[in-house]
């Protein structure tokens, strides 16, 4: 292992981060098994509180199960649409493609086993939700590794969590964290879809950095 990375290697990392996208449109091209293995290995190298490694990965290959999960999305998406008060915003939401469950060649549910290493997990006691945060780090590793492979991932969060967990037959104490659609995208867009469609722009980073207390601005350019 190298202790340092060259400027070229550093730029590749930052380029992958900037180029990551939430993918909804898939080409249908099969994902090679060796690429999937590398993506899962990247996930498994994520940091985790107390090294508990709380994640599991459920490949959803059953057409019937995918159909049931898609039905959950349709119902939940309809409920979310009705919560939007502005007519123009509601129309924009209706026009957004927010999943690729049936189109993506690979569906993976990422779970968090909240009982793993119980009753004592080093570092978790004061902040119990760090096992969920750790699982999210594994998902981010998957996303970046997939992007490096030219493969796209879409996170489907518009699901009834409890009903989807029952469909996946998750045991007590195991929670669904992410339902991912994986495959080669039709394209990687230059900007996030929600930004392109006018849902929201990226926030100004300088307005998100504070010093010592909430709301006290910190100018990174002036730091010593």
Automatic annotation (TrEMBL):
<dbReference type="InterPro" id="IPR012825">
    <property type="entry name" value="BluB"/>
</dbReference>
<keyword id="KW-0560">Oxidoreductase</keyword>
<dbReference type="Pfam" id="PF00881">
    <property type="entry name" value="Nitroreductase"/>
</dbReference>
<feature type="domain" description="Nitroreductase">
    <location>
        <begin position="17"/>
        <end position="184"/>
    </location>
</feature>
<dbReference type="InterPro" id="IPR000415">
    <property type="entry name" value="Nitroreductase-like"/>
</dbReference>
<keyword id="KW-0285">Flavoprotein</keyword>
<dbReference type="InterPro" id="IPR050627">
    <property type="entry name" value="Nitroreductase/BluB"/>
</dbReference>
<keyword id="KW-0288">FMN</keyword>
<dbReference type="GO" id="GO:0102919">
    <property type="term" value="F:5,6-dimethylbenzimidazole synthase activity"/>
</dbReference>
<dbReference type="InterPro" id="IPR029479">
    <property type="entry name" value="Nitroreductase"/>
</dbReference>
<protein>
    <submittedName>
        <fullName>5,6-dimethylbenzimidazole synthase</fullName>
        <ecNumber>1.13.11.79</ecNumber>
    </submittedName>
</protein>
């Amino acid at each position: 292992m190298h202790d340092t990375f060259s400027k070229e290697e550093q730029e590749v990392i930052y380029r992958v981060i900037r180029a990551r996208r939430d993918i909804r449109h898939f080409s249908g091209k099969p994902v090679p098994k060796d690429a999937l293995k590398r993506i899962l290995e990247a996930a498994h190298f994520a940091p985790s509180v107390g090294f508990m490694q709380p994640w599991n990965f459920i490949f959803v290959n059953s057409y019937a199960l995918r159909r049931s999960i898609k039905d959950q999305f349709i119902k939940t998406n309809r409920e979310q649409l009705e919560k939007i008060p502005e007519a123009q915003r509601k129309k924009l939401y209706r026009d957004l493609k927010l999943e690729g469950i049936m189109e993506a060649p690979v569906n993976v549910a990422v779970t968090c086993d909240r009982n793993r290493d119980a009753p004592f997990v080093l570092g978790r006691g004061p902040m119990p939700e760090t096992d969920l945060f750790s699982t999210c780090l594994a998902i981010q590793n998957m996303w970046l590794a997939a992007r490096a492979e030219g493969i796209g991932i879409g996170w489907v969060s518009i699901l009834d969590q409890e009903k989807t967990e029952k469909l996946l037959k998750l045991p007590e104490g195991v929670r669904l964290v992410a339902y991912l659609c994986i495959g080669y995208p039709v394209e990687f867009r230059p900007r996030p879809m929600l930004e392109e469609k006018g849902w929201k722009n990226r926030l100004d980073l300088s307005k998100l950095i504070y010093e010592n207390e909430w709301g006290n601005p910190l100018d990174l350019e002036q730091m010593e």
